[in-house]
Amino acid sequence: MANVRIDRLHKEFRGPTGTVHALQELTLDIADGEFVSLVGPSGCGKSTALRIIAGLEVPSSGRILFGPRDITKLEPRDRNIAMVFQSYALYPHMTVRQNLEYGLRKRGIGKEERARKVAAIAPMLRLETMLERKPRQLSGGQRQRVALGRALIRDPEVFLLDEPLSNLDAKLRVHMRAELAALHQKLRTTMIYVTHDQLEAMTLSDRIVVMNHGVMQQVGTPEEIYSRPANRFVAEFIGTPSMNMIEGELRIEGGRPVFQGPGIAVPLPQAPPRMPATPQATLGVRPEDIALVPPDAPGAIRAKVTVSELAGAERYHFIELGSGSVILRTPATTVLRPGETVALGLDPARLHLFAGAGEDAA
Ligand code: ADP
């Protein structure tokens, strides 16, 4: 078991088309036993970070420490890690048992000890009845459990998981996600998990690191990241459907901050600590934080419904607001008709204000 310190990690790739800064000054302390996910869009540097921790990639600068030990220069095999990849790459000609034992055998561990270890982990992954099967006789989920077992059997200090569920179909992914969470509960080994799937990160992790363009955007518990996103990128990346973004201006009226967008004026509980240089601002509101209110409610915003979609237990209503549209999320029992005019209320405590407008707003 070990806590992991990632200290000012930087990685550049030099290629014919120039230099790519895959990772910029990544610093992070991961507690012993913690489950931390690195999440972000494709190319944001999350795999590079994991590969450096694994020793498969050399950083341009920065250090990795496991407990007090600086392991930056150690070979992968000397780091006491186990890695699980998206492609589980089992040996097809070997049985499940032989696949599980392979790493132990290579390290010269005797037959009895190997059998004891297989017997200990097989039930944990519900593989007891499958030990003599070949990988082709297993389902995708079972194969992925063997891949996890192969990592587990080595009893590593740190688990590194790179999109381990992304080859599974949607239903199985949800199932394996729960299994992985249960496994972590049981083992309490440090796990570092890479995914582009924010929902996977939200459901599995003690803490999430949101990355974009090689730069850490925010680190926090799933709750913190969801309810207090540090910037517009995090706000839009985390949560489905995405946070609604309304472009407008922030003004002070009668000493109070008011957000004004096309067709709406929303008083805010407090001005940002530093008023931005330009009034351009973006108001963020999650689809579940827009309420349907009586038409005569104070501050009600009148708007027209364009489309309503049923999504199982919920409904998503697309509503024209100013020059754009917002999504309102309600229980499925709330039925709105396209063309209908509704009155909306925004709870000031659940609004997010971002300086500037458009994609680059921070
Ligand atoms: P992610 O895992 O978030 O999709 P990566 O860590 O794989 O992102 O990549 C981060 C950036 O570094 C990308 O721009 C990618 O193209 C670049 N990159 C990754 N590996 C290499 C490499 N071996 N050579 C050149 N560029 C690379």
Structural features, described:
The chain has 362 residues and is α+β, with helices and mostly antiparallel strands. The protein has 8 helices and 20 strands. Helix 2 (96-106) runs parallel beside helix 4 (140-152). The chain folds into 2 domains: 4-237, P-loop containing nucleotide triphosphate hydrolases (Rossmann fold); 244-355, OB fold (Dihydrolipoamide Acetyltransferase, E2P). A hairpin with a 2-residue loop joins strand 12 and strand 13 (264-267). Bound molecules: adenosine-5'-diphosphate. Adenosine-5'-diphosphate (ADP) binds next to strand 1, strand 2 and helix 1.
Q: Kindly give the count of domains.
A: 2
Which fold name corresponds to the CATH topology of the largest domain?
Answer: Rossmann fold
Give the fraction of residues assigned to helices: 10-25%
Oligomeric state of shown chains? single chain
Shape: elongated
Alpha-beta classification: alpha+beta
Q: Helix count?
A: 8
**Could you name the ranges where pLDDT drops below 50 across 5 or more consecutive residues?**
none
CATH homolog superfamily of the largest domain: P-loop containing nucleotide triphosphate hydrolases
Distance between the termini: 38 Å
CATH architecture of the largest domain: 3-Layer(aba) Sandwich
Following the backbone from N to C, one meets helices and strands in this order, namely EEEHEEEHHHEHEHEEHHEEEEEEEEEE
State which percent range the strand residues make up.
Answer: 35-45%
Number of strands: 20
User: Major beta sheet, specifics?
Assistant: 6 strands, mixed
Keywords: ATP-binding, Nucleotide-binding, Transport
GO molecular function: ABC-type transporter activity; ATP binding; ATP hydrolysis activity
Protein name: Sn-glycerol-3-phosphate ABC transporter ATP-binding protein UgpC
GO biological process, one term: carbohydrate transport
